[in-house]
């Protein structure tokens, strides 16, 4: 399992792409997760399989497109289940778990992840108290 504490959460949304980034630090993080969901694709993107959610982690063998099987946002953590092929590309043996050290961003994270997952057909659960 790839796990770390996210001290930094970034959510960027423009007319072309939604990006969620979580990292253990703002400057030169050693652990991070970046999820990127584009809103439009050209023929080349489709032909190369780049028309799916983009996933990158710190220290990975390589980033990957697709492979995200489900996302669960809990009160203080985020869990991503990924396919065997995606785990191979990323060089990890299991799921991804991120502990949110600052939960003030949780509402924005909930909205962004829900949009991202809906656009990519990925099951999303946000557990609430």
Describe what this molecule looks like in 3D:
The longest helix has 15 residues, at about 105-120. About 25% of the residues are buried. With about 130 residues, the protein is of the alpha+beta class. The chain has 3 helices and 10 strands.
Helix-strand blueprint:
Elements (H helix, E strand, L loop, with lengths): L1 E5 L1 E6 L3 E7 L8 E7 L4 H5 L6 E4 L6 E2 L2 E6 L3 E6 L1 H7 L5 E5 L5 H15 L3 E3 L3
Parallel strand pairs: 1-9, 7-10
Antiparallel strand pairs: 2-3, 3-4, 4-5, 5-6, 7-8, 8-9
Quick overview of this protein structure:
With 129 residues, the protein is of the alpha+beta class. It is built from 3 helices and 10 strands; from the N terminus they run ββββαββββαβαβ. The chain has helices at residues 43-47, 84-90, 106-120; strands spanning 2-6, 8-13, 17-23, 32-38, 54-57, 64-65, 68-73, 77-82, 96-100, 124-126.
Shape: globular
H and E order:
EEEEHEEEEHEHE
User: Gyration radius, to the nearest Å?
Assistant: 14 Å
* Main sheet record: 5 strands, mixed
The secondary-structure class comes to alpha+beta
Mean pLDDT: 87
Strand order of the largest sheet: 1-9-8-7-10
Estimate the strand proportion: 35-45%
Keywords:
alpha+beta, globular, single chain, five-stranded antiparallel β-sheet, 129 residues, 10 strands, five-stranded mixed β-sheet
């Amino acid at each position: 399992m790839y796990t770390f504490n996210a001290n930094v959460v970034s959510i960027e949304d423009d007319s072309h792409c939604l990006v969620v980034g979580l990292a253990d630090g703002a400057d030169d993080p050693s652990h991070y997760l970046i999820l990127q969901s584009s809103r439009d694709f050209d023929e080349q993107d489709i032909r190369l399989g780049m028309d799916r959610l983009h996933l990158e982690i710190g220290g990975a063998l390589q980033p990957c497109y697709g492979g995200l099987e489900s996302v669960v946002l809990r009160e203080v953590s985020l869990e991503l289940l990924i396919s065997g092929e995606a785990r191979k590309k990323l060089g990890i043996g299991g799921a991804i778990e991120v502990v949110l050290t600052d939960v003030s961003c949780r509402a924005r994270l909930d909205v962004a992840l829900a949009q991202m997952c809906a656009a990519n057909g990925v099951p999303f659960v946000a557990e609430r108290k």
